[in-house]
């Protein structure tokens, strides 16, 4: 009887350690695999500087590159997948004079440029996240045309109205990721 009680106490102790120490670490590791977060210091800094939601910024990076520094077949570069033409446009808008294309591989520069462009789009579309994200992915000209068509029908452009399947899926992916980043990385993103 005493042996069974000792064994039960030992099992309970191990279970307590597993529950207290191992499971939270395992949950964090699983989150990192399915919902990675890198450069949270840069994300917090750029979000504060550009008056953006850090979870939204993280959601855009997730949708664009899953936090991997890659170059797409279309030439979009870095974490926020900025094309050289868009980077030159951002440099022009921001008054940047020392832009170097190779700098887009640097997380600080890439996130700064992407955050600047997202901030610009949010302002251009009156703070409408859906329109700003659609423009980030599908281009300002397309979004302007879609908004015009919706206005002609006396309605607002909604996610389900976006005619490009890729852009519609992108907007939904970012919005979904934004919510997950806000829940899973509240402390890291300074929320």
Task: Describe the 3D structure.
- There is one protein chain.
- The chain has 191 residues and is mainly alpha-helical.
- It contains eight helices and no strands.
- The protein has helices at residues 2-34, 40-50, 54-65, 84-94, 107-124, 129-138, 140-152, 165-184.
- The radius of gyration is 22 Å and the shape is elongated.
How do you describe this structure in short?
The chain is an all-alpha fold and 191 residues long. The chain is built from 8 helices and no strands. The radius of gyration is 22 Å and the shape is elongated.
Strand content: under 5%
Mean pLDDT comes to: 88
How many strand elements?
Answer: 0
Structure annotation, total helices: 8
Helix fraction bin: 55-70%
Quick one: overall form? Answer: elongated
Tell me which oligomeric state these chains represent: single chain
Based on helices, strands and strand pairing, what is the structural class?
mainly alpha
Major sheet characteristics: none
Low-pLDDT segments, ≥5 res: none
Order of helices and strands: HHHHHHHH
Q: What gap, in angstroms, lies between the N and C termini?
A: 52 Å
Radius of gyration: 22 Å
Write the layout of secondary structure elements.
Layout (H helix, E strand, L loop, with lengths): L1 H33 L5 H11 L3 H12 L18 H11 L12 H18 L4 H10 L1 H13 L12 H20 L7
Helix pairs in contact: 2-5, 3-8, 5-6, 6-7, 6-8
Essential attributes:
about 190 residues; mainly alpha; elongated
